[in-house]
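step: validate -> pass
step: tokenize input -> pass
step: predict -> running
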Amino acid sequence: MTRLVLVLLFALLPATAGAAEPSRQLPVKLRADRIEIDQKTGISRYSGKVVLTQGTVRLTADRAEARTLNQSLQRVTAHGRPLTFRERLEDGSGFVEGEARNAEYEAVERRIHLSDQVELRRGKDVLRAGRMRYDIDLKTVHAETEDGQRVVAALEPRRRPENGSSP
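step: predict -> pass
step: emit ->
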């Protein structure tokens, strides 16, 4: 059973998991209708149509809070009904997209923790769970139940080339 779950999870991940992307070095940008910044505590609050981007990663939410340390973004906590997440696949063939009601983005580690009605999609493949962690650079997903919400994977069969050769 464990092996089947691993196979299903890896089927949702991008096809290429090469070296760290150059987007890791790109700035994190936050936009919103309203922004409150407290330089003393390093906490910024964003509300109304919040959009976070870093390279090909995009997160949208109703409200968010960012924490910085030594003028470097450490963590963003976001909430929405739903909030959305999207990252372009390295090979340019599409996107990994998701939604949830709560998210935490660890900027340095480039990890997203999603909770409360989580759904992750790649093409027609779908993974639903109560909680999910997505490591952007390692291209790994960990999904688990929350409040009785089971982990569900729906995968489309991959088409073989028409000439009958192996992919």
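step: describe -> The longest strand covers residues 72-88.
step: cleanup -> pass
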